[in-house]
Design a protein that fits this description.
single chain, alpha/beta, globular
Length: about 450
């Protein structure tokens, strides 16, 4: 049975297993109909022109794990930012792990999506926020909506500075021959509040996994949200990450995406503006090799005046790897005084590595400052020669140049321990030890 048919036939059984009130039932039913009509995206769609899911969909994915699996902290400690204290919301094969988690309801909610969806005390929040900015047209997002039940629920009340970062961790044990998981996260950050969030999806063995994740982020007036995505999975892991951000007046939201591992990774990142004088930041570093594939699809929708957005994506591609950057800035007629800047810089280290870049600006306002740029090239041979002439071995010189290339994004990380972790991952990817403190 093809995966699409398996999902459609599993939908009724899924709803029977959970307690669904009528509003959610109607929403899920509409979502599964949308998925049935559209199916999985193909390269015939312009936004998926350079990314094919055909090889992945041939796997016989288990839609629901047959049994609950447990993992000891010692097995996964290295994946956490364990140098500092953090809130933790951890899932094993899509199922919440209370043993590995550290949640709270003391002055703020850092807990489970399943609780928020099914407990009456959260109904008003769910009615106001759940599935309000997620796409109704993007087929994988609607598929997630149809089966949405578990994930992280984060609700920060107004005038609250969350005292420690929040880690959202999804582990796949590989106990199934092939597993499909569909986490759903909802993040609401109140007026004048500040939160830092780290998200990671990690497979613990080499069995194929397909993760179709959706995250909705709502930043109220003057809220500050720093969101970090660490993608450093094994070569049989596939991730479709759909993130939707709603920003109100004077809010600041930054999303950093670090794509280092996995078989196929597709990041759909969408920002929508609903207030003036706000700032959106989208940064990314991609370092991949072999036959890995990473596709960044971004949208910043400027709908209000006096707003800013900044996109800075760096890519380093070796072997037979493929990168895609499809970045779009849309400026409506009402969005005067918009400042929007977008750039994608890429280095190809091999003759067979590829980057497909399509930066786009659609501007309907006449008083704006908007720019986009894309570069594709190789390492500067003059700089390499200069460094080697000063006694730096070729391998280290090459790594230093690539590190300097991505340094602007690294420096924008606001959690020191996370900056050190990302630096170590980059050094490992480049095959060197950095001989200086970062």
């Amino acid at each position: 049975m093809e995966l699409k048919e398996k999902l459609l036939s599993s939908f009724m059984a899924f709803e029977e297993q959970i307690d669904v009130h009528s509003e959610l039932h109607d929403l899920r039913t509409e979502a599964i109909k949308n998925f049935e009509n559209k199916g999985f995206p193909t390269k015939k769609e312009e936004s998926w022109k350079y990314t094919s899911l055909n090889a992945i969909l041939k796997n016989d994915f288990t839609v629901f794990p047959k049994s609950e699996n447990s993992v000891e902290f010692a097995e996964v400690k290295k994946y956490f930012i364990h140098e500092i204290d953090t809130y933790k919301v951890v899932f094993i094969d899509g199922v919440f792990s209370s043993n590995l988690s550290s949640t709270t309801h003391e002055g703020l909610d850092i807990c489970l999506m399943s609780s928020a969806l099914h407990k009456p005390k959260y109904k008003m929040v769910i009615d106001n926020y759940f599935d309000k900015i997620a796409s109704k047209d993007e087929s994988l997002t609607t598929l997630n909506t149809a089966f949405a039940n578990e994930g992280a629920y984060i609700n920060i009340p107004k005038s609250t500075v969350v005292r420690k970062p929040i880690e959202i961790m999804y582990f796949s044990t590989g106990n199934e021959a092939a597993l499909l998981v569909q986490p759903r996260n909802l993040v609401i950050v109140g007026e004048n509040s500040h939160v830092q969030i780290i998200e990671r999806h990690q497979s613990l063995n080499e069995n194929p996994v397909l993760t179709n994740s959706v995250t909705e982020i709502f930043a109220q007036k003057r809220a500050i949200v720093d969101f970090y995505k660490i993608q450093n999975d094994n070569h049989e892991a596939n991730l479709i990450d759909n993130t939707y951000v709603s920003q109100k007046q004077e809010s600041h939201v930054s999303v950093h995406t670090f794509s280092f591992g996995g078989n196929l990774t597709r990041n759909n990142l969408n920002f929508y503006h609903f207030g003036e004088r706000l700032t959106s930041t989208l940064n990314g570093i991609t370092i991949i090799g072999e036959k890995q594939h990473v596709d960044h699809y971004t949208l910043v929708h400027h709908a209000t005046p006096n707003c800013e957005s900044f996109q800075d994506y760096k890519g380093i591609f070796s072997d037979n790897s493929t990168g895609v950057f499809n970045g779009k800035v849309y400026v409506e007629k009402e969005a005067q005084k918009t400042n929007a800047f977008q750039k994608s810089n890429n280095i190809l280290l091999g003759d067979k590595s590829t980057i497909n870049a399509k930066p786009q600006l659609e501007i309907f306002a006449d008083d704006v400052k908007c720019s986009h740029g894309c570069t594709v090239g190789q390492l500067d041979e003059t700089a390499m020669f200069y460094m080697q002439s000063r006694g730096i071995p070729k391998k280290e010189a090459k790594a230093l140049l690539m590190y300097a290339f991505s340094n602007a994004v690294i420096e924008s990380i606001k959690i020191p321990e996370l900056k050190q972790r990302i630096t170590k991952i980059i050094a490992l990817k480049l095959g060197v030890k950095m001989g200086f403190d970062l």
